[in-house]
Design brief:
transmembrane helix, elongated, mainly alpha, ADGR_G7, 109 residues, GPCR_2-like_7TM
């Protein structure tokens, strides 16, 4: 189970880095839709990385404190739903709030 958590964390961090490298190119910041998509994806994958780190911390805590008790069989399934799903909800809410111009580049004059 520990290796699955670490693999998910590494996938999330790798995708974050790839999107960052691709999204910081000059062509990506010129088109508003692409810029907004890159910002939303970076936001999502940074939140998933944070969530997977929290799952890892919970797993270590349960392993140290609750040594003799068994884990629930659906720990990994619940963790996956929480770690990949909750950031999607947060980003969707942020995208849904239109009046603040979220995820758009503001030109300095």
């Amino acid at each position: 189970m520990v290796s699955k958590i670490l693999v998910n964390l590494c996938i999330s961090l790798a995708i974050t880095n790839i999107i960052f490298l691709a999204g910081m190119q000059p062509y990506a910041s010129k088109i508003t839709g692409v810029c907004k998509a890159v910002a939303a994806l970076i936001h999502y994958f940074l939140l998933t990385s944070l969530m997977w780190m929290a799952v890892e911390a919970l797993n270590v805590f349960l392993g140290v404190v609750v040594v003799f008790k068994t884990y629930q069989t659906s720990f990994m399934l619940r963790s996956s739903i929480l770690a990949w799903g909750l950031p999607a909800v947060i980003v969707a809410i942020t995208l849904g709030i239109n009046y603040t111009n979220n995820y758009t580049r503001i030109a300095q004059v």
